[in-house]
Design brief:
By secondary structure, the chain is mostly helical. It has two domains: about 70 residues; about 35 residues, no CATH class. It has three helices and no strands. It is elongated, with a radius of gyration of 46 Å.
């Protein structure tokens, strides 16, 4: 049997080899992008961890300051609350409020209520 002479590469084989090269370069580019993203993510995680540690330290410092402030305020600067003055019926009657017998007009009753309000606000 005689061997066939080699024929020029077919267009299909040429297209396939071009596609393979394009795919290989695409894979290399994706690997480089992946490595870059991994490095970026690692740096971001390190920054987040540093921020978390800093925030925890600041929170501890804040709590310590608050606790120290609470101790100082209870030790040296304690001001007792002022008692609220309660009005009793006897206190009210000392101001001799107007008495209503039911025969007053609406204007007189309104004036009487204003007088009582002044007594309470005194």
């Amino acid at each position: 049997m005689a061997s066939r002479p080699s024929s020029p590469p077919s267009p299909v084989r040429s297209d396939v080899s071009n596609l393979v090269r394009v795919m290989e370069s695409f894979v290399v580019a994706m690997q480089q992008q992946n490595a870059s993203l991994m490095q970026h993510n690692t740096m971001a995680l390190q920054q987040l961890e540093a921020a978390r540690v800093s925030a925890e330290a600041q929170q501890r410092q804040y709590v310590e300051l608050m606790n120290d402030g609470a101790r100082i305020s209870t030790d040296h600067f304690y001001i007792p609350p002022t008692p609220i003055h309660e009005w009793s019926l006897e206190n009210f009657l000392q101001h001799h409020p107007a008495k209503f017998c039911g025969n007053t007009s609406a204007d007189e009753a309104d004036q009487g209520f204003r007088d009582m309000e002044r007594i309470f606000n005194a």
